[in-house]
């Protein structure tokens, strides 16, 4: 049975970690490292270690967090590059 918020929490954790490194923003990277230091032990929950613990939900949340960070980073990068291209005036 897959029930609980731990998969969601692990998804947020991996989202924060991956997003910080994708943006290469110093502040976000520092926050990512702090989150990893405080909650990094949760990452071991993606492996089947204990009976009755839904590692599938943990793994799904982690994969979802990585995909969401990648997709949102790619989307915002595309939006920024489009805005810059639209803002340019044609040269004569």
Give a verbal description of the structure.
This protein has 92 residues and is mainly α. The chain has one domain. It contains three helices and no strands. The longest helix has 33 residues. The protein is flat and about 50 Å long. The chain starts with 5 loop residues before the first helix and ends in a 5-residue tail after the last helix. 20% of the residues are buried.
Any chance you could write out the topology, listing elements then pairs?
Blueprint: H1 6-23, H2 26-39, H3 55-87
Helix pairs in contact: 1-2, 1-3
Structural class: mainly alpha
Radius of gyration over alpha carbons? 18 Å
Main pleated sheet? none
Unreliable residue runs: none
Q: How confident overall, as mean pLDDT?
A: 79
Count of helical stretches: 3
Ends apart, CA distance between termini: 66 Å
Q: What's the number of extended β-strand segments?
A: 0
Share of residues in helices: over 70%
From N to C, what is the helix and strand string? HHH
Query: What share of the residues does DSSP label as strand, in percent?
Result: under 5%
How many separate domains make up the residues? Answer: 1
Shape: flat
């Amino acid at each position: 049975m897959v029930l609980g918020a731990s998969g969601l929490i692990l998804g947020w954790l991996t989202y924060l970690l991956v997003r910080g490194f994708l943006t290469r923003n110093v502040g976000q990277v520092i926050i990512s490292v702090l989150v990893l230091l405080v909650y990094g032990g949760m990452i071991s929950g993606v492996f089947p270690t204990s009976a009755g613990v839904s590692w599938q939900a943990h793994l799904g949340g982690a994969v979802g967090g990585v995909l969401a960070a990648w997709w949102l980073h790619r989307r915002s990068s595309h939006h920024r590059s489009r805005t810059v291209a639209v803002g340019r005036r044609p040269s004569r």
